[in-house]
Amino acid sequence: MSVLSVSALPLDGLMRVERKRLGDARGFLARLYCAETLRAAGWMKPVAAINHTYSALKGTLRGMHFQHAPHAEMKLVTCIRGEIRDVALDLRAGSQSFRSWHAETLSAENGRAMLIPEGFAHGFQALTDDVEILYCHSAAHAPAAEGAVNAFDPAFGITWPLPVSAISERDKRHPMTEPSFKGIIL
């Protein structure tokens, strides 16, 4: 395995990133981002932003967020402390996996990340207390382009492994989709 390797997940364009830790008695080094490797996986834009989140309580839920075109973004999600259940939901109009979701366990220990394409909503649940996440974004945050769906929308059937201990008022109020929802246009 190279220092950073990428493998396809069940939804088109969704990728698992695995990092090989190079270590010795002092500790380790792990490459978080490699433009060349990720370009081969579909990341064609520069990194526009890197965000860091902290969730204090096991069971905390965040999501399901995305940005509309022309500000649609790819995300590279990495857990640097604790463990999460990371969920990507395909909302791309016309996609063969439209309305399908996939979840991966990301942790500081396993060193995995998820590369999420444009047109997917993203969210996660903290599986431990004191969780920290780094997100690389391919587009700058554009408040007017923000989009979200409700993490409990029965149209998607996302299963969360733990009871929810904390969720923002904003995330609670994300809308359920209408039966006529055809997806987001990129």
Write a compact overview of the structure shown.
Helices cover 5% and strands 39% of the residues. The chain has 186 residues and is mainly beta. Strand 3 (22-24) and strand 4 (27-29) form a beta hairpin.
Q: What would you note in describing this structure?
A:
By secondary structure, this protein is mostly beta strands. The protein has helices spanning 35-40, 169-172; strands at residues 4-8, 15-19, 22-24, 27-29, 49-55, 61-67, 75-81, 83-90, 101-107, 113-116, 120-126, 131-137, 146-148. The protein has 2 helices and 13 strands, in the order E-E-E-E-H-E-E-E-E-E-E-E-E-E-H. Strands 1-2-10-7-12-5 form a 6-stranded antiparallel beta sheet, with no helix packed on it.
Helix content: under 10%
Number of E strands: 13
- Distance linking N and C termini: 34 Å
Rg of Cα set: 16 Å
Estimate the strand proportion.
Answer: 35-45%
Summarize the helix and strand pattern as letters. Answer: EEEEHEEEEEEEEEH
Q: Could you say which overall geometry the principal axes of the C-alpha atoms support?
A: globular
| Main sheet strand line-up | 1-2-10-7-12-5
Uncertain runs: none
